[in-house]
Amino acid sequence: MASQLRITIIGAGVAGLVAAYELEQLGHQVEILEGSSRIGGRIYTHRFGSDASAPFVELGAMRIPSHHRNTLSYIHQLGLDHKLETFKTLFSDAAAYHFTDAGFVRLRHAAQVLVEEFRARLAGDGYRDEEILFGTWLTAIGNAIAPANFRDSIFEDISLELLKLVKGIDLTPFLRGDHKDRFDLHGFFAAYPHIRSSSSGRLNRFIDDILNETSPDLLRLAGGMDQLVRALAERIRGPIRCGHEVVGLAVRDHDVLVDIRQGDHIVTKRCDYVLCTIPFSLLRRLRLCGFSEEKLAVIRNVQYWSATKVAFLCAEPFWVRDGIDGGASFIGGRVRQTYYPPVEGDPDRGAVLLASYTMGDDADVIGGMDPSRRHAVVLHEVSRMHPELLAPGMVRDVVSLAWGQHRWSCGGGVTRWGKDAAACEEERALAARPEKRLFFAGEHCSSTTAWMEGAIESAIHAVREITRDEPRTPVAVARHHM
């Protein structure tokens, strides 16, 4: 057997937990240092109570694209397959609401208003009705998902670039709805992948993100995403030490010095190997010694988007009486997206409404508010769409999390919008590149940023790097790409 390595992992998010699990499978000795009081990182299931039947909301990761094979592989290995269910997302329920210049309209009735809005902004004429519907629904999704600083540029990209690329293509097979006024964007881009590859880097990344976020094939873990975290932690033999905040790293030729805050004191630990999985938004705040200039540059420059969620525990799922069977509404304003999670557990305990989910600049506006003001603003804005929220006793509790202001994250996820494929790969490679015996993982080191898949992908890669010089037999790491 290969010699046993001793590896210290910084961060108990999904990347750190997966790496620890795989390293132990290979026979190595692992410990995890986590600065906060909880494990899971940006997998964060909040429960309105302490028992299994308590209502819950996902304040972090809440969905899994069906093509994210690494994530689904771990769910299978950890015996959680039976918990997988469909995640209903934006534009999946025709009864949900969509904000327009004419006010809130049901999604099933939104096409006429949205087409008029799109035509009013469009320079020139000469487009077929099907092309207008294509541009209309792509713009509608962009308005619902993209942060404020991207929305205007996205319309320009669609109107000036994409509409030209689809000219001459028969779009009628992708028209949907009783009146053929909806457009199947997923089917279209699957049938014509060259349209995406012909687009600019910024537009290509945008299309990729919106197709993922509005996919009909998204999945969830019934009972909460934190089941994945707990199942991984239960299988790790080495210690997971919460409350051990790393404040400095010094890279040397044959070891790494790790400075750890313990109360009012800083303790320095000499480590044979270190795997750092914390976000670069945190890492750049640490004292870093012995790093190459290239590494320091990428640590400084990786960009993170904010994400803010606000959830109400309601006395009942009033939206069901309104004909909404899950999915999400686009509310516009500062709130942006409102989701209707399935009711799990005891219905007498209430139902959770994910009242606001924002990203980027929108998330910073909401996240920068004092929590009490944040909750009041969201209640006021969402009640314009759902006045039932103002009924006495309807809102029993409120919780929110602003990842951009969160001490242990300082961001909701890495963004590479605006970069072409070559620039994205260059950043990924530099982020993942080891510094002697200091290795790196986390979604910032992956090709799939802002998803659990990226964190897991990076952990698998880091394990390979750490054990590169060790004799290997077919083990856990290899099986994820079967």
UniProtKB/TrEMBL annotation:
Residues in Amine oxidase domain copies: 14-466
PANTHER family named among the record's database cross-references: AMINE OXIDASE (PTHR10742:SF342), FLAVIN MONOAMINE OXIDASE (PTHR10742)
Domain of life: Bacteria
Reported cofactor(s): FAD
Residues engaged in binding FAD: G60, A61, M62, R63, V246, E443
Keyword Oxidoreductase assigned: yes
GO molecular function terms noted in the UniProt entry: L-amino-acid oxidase activity; monooxygenase activity
Protein name: Tryptophan 2-monooxygenase
Binding site for substrate: R63
Gene3D superfamilies: 1.10.10.1620, 3.90.660.10, FAD/NAD(P)-binding domain (3.50.50.60)
InterPro entries xref list: Amino_oxidase (IPR002937), FAD/NAD-bd_sf (IPR036188), Flavin_amine_oxidase (IPR001613), Flavin_monoamine_oxidase (IPR050281)
Keywords: Monooxygenase, Oxidoreductase
Keyword Aminoacyl-tRNA synthetase: no
One BP annotation, GO: amino acid catabolic process
